[in-house]
């Protein structure tokens, strides 16, 4: 096993990389591709990552950064419009894919890279942190953007997606993303897909990339605020009176409120473990995230097997992503903040995998990273710059090791699936493209989407 190597540090900001000899292929001035390490690739193409993040003076703690992420007014910036496509899966569940720019609004090349974004716990495409990245990524090149296409995978029941089955989502369940990637590739066969995950969505993305290895349809990933070791982070939060009562209870209540929004839909579902759980879930008083996970997520947060789990602890151990980093075979950049009040354990060893780099900033809170803007009291998200540089680099310079994926087809009944895939449950049907969605704030709640 290789030895951990710290590639770069400045003050308290550091970049951790594995010591394995993994290399990636990138374009060069010569006709032949150049082989390089991930650390050198980042140094040459993501300069913002090596400039220390300095928080705005009035947001100088992880708690303040996180609070501003939740309660700040972002309705007038990073406006993103979407076209929504609903997918129905074999288990009856529904996932919403929000594409930007909306179909027909402006022409985007068929081979333009696609940023596949995954939101936080109970969030969606409206979240400010999602829009901050996508607004820059999909802006036309002549206007200073990347000219890419974006799509947000909204989990079951989130962001107005209907709840239509007895299965929930979870931090470790990857099949909904797996199906979404197949559909996106089916709709845009010439495009390369790159993942950007936030918090819980980052955990899902990393587990998917690790499970797929070289066959990952996401050719590279960027993970922001990933919870990594969910078990130990849960222990840490529950052991603190402040963290438990401020953060854990807010996140737990958000899941309960999300389910209550779908109470009428749940009442129409056939009897299942979920419908039997629902009265118990709604009866919880000021529940922590652990309470909700122990009641709901560990039982119906994914397929059987491995669900249900005997305890929330068992689910947390299974669903964590830090222990799968060794299986990642596409370039992965992760960024966490050392003062994140929700994530206290990060994998400095990055799985001893040269395909993985972890940048740890001294500040930034959970999905914050707000620095001072040009005007008094104005702030901007520092993290957007290195993420956009990363997306530009992997989209324009990276030469993926594999582009010849398993073909995708639609059968006579309208089910879309990979050819010869032995798992029939991974197929999907399109319910249709919906009206344009204005991706702005409005799905409020304490710590919504984190």
From TrEMBL:
UniProt keyword terms in alphabetical order: Hydrolase
GO annotation (BP), single: medium-chain fatty acid catabolic process
Active site: 199, 340, 366
GO molecular function list: acetylesterase activity; monoacylglycerol lipase activity
Domain AB hydrolase-1: 113-368
Family matches, as SUPFAM superfamilies: alpha/beta-Hydrolases
Family as reported in the entry's similarity comment: Belongs to the AB hydrolase superfamily. AB hydrolase 4 family.
Name of the protein this chain belongs to: AB-hydrolase YheT
């Amino acid at each position: 096993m290789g030895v951990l190597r710290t590639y770069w540090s400045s003050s308290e900001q550091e970049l951790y990389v594995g010591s394995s000899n993994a290399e990636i292929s990138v374009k060069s001035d010569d006709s032949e591709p150049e082989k390089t390490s991930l650390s050198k690739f980042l140094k040459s193409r993501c300069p913002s990552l090596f400039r220390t993040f300095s928080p705005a003076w009035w947001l100088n703690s992880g708690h303040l950064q996180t609070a501003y992420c939740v309660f700040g007014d972002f309705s007038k910036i990073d406006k993103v419009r979407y076209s929504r496509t609903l997918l129905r899966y074999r288990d009856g569940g529904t996932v919403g894919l929000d594409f930007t720019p909306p179909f027909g609004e402006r022409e985007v090349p068929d081979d333009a890279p696609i940023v596949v974004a995954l939101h936080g716990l109970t969030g969606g495409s409206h979240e400010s942190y999602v829009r901050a990245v996508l607004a820059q990524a999909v802006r036309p090149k002549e206007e200073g953007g990347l000219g890419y296409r974006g799509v947000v995978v909204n989990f079951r029941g989130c962001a107005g997606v209907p709840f239509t089955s007895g299965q929930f989502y979870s931090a470790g369940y990857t099949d909904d993303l797996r199906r979404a990637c197949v559909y996106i590739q089916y709709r845009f066969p010439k495009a390369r897909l790159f993942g950007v995950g936030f918090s819980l969505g980052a955990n899902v993305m990393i587990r998917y990339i690790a499970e797929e290895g070289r066959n990952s349809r996401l050719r590279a990933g960027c993970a922001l605020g990933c919870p990594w070791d969910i078990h130990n982070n849960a222990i840490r939060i529950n052991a603190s009176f402040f963290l438990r009562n401020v953060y854990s209870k807010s996140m737990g209540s958000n899941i309960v409120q999300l389910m209550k929004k779908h109470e009428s839909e749940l009442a129409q579902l056939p009897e299942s473990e979920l419908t039997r759980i629902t009265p118990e879930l709604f009866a919880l008083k000021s529940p922590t995230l652990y309470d909700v996970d122990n009641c709901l997520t560990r039982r119906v947060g994914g397929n059987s097997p491995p669900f249900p789990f005997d305890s929330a602890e068992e689910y947390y151990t299974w669903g964590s992503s830090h222990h799968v980093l060794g299986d990642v075979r596409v370039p992965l950049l992760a960024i966490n903040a050392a003062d994140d009040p929700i994530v206290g354990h990060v994998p400095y060893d990055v799985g001893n995998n040269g395909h993985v780099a972890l940048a740890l900033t001294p500040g930034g809170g959970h999905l914050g990273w707000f620095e001072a803007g040009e005007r008094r009291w104005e702030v901007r998200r520092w993290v957007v710059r290195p993420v956009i540089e990363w997306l530009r680099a992997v989209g324009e310079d990276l030469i993926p090791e594999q582009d010849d994926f398993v073909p995708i087809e639609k059968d006579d009944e309208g089910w879309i699936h990979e050819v010869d895939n032995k798992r029939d449950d991974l197929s999907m049907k399109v319910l249709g493209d919906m009206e344009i969605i204005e991706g702005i704030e409005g799905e409020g709640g304490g710590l919504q989407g984190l």
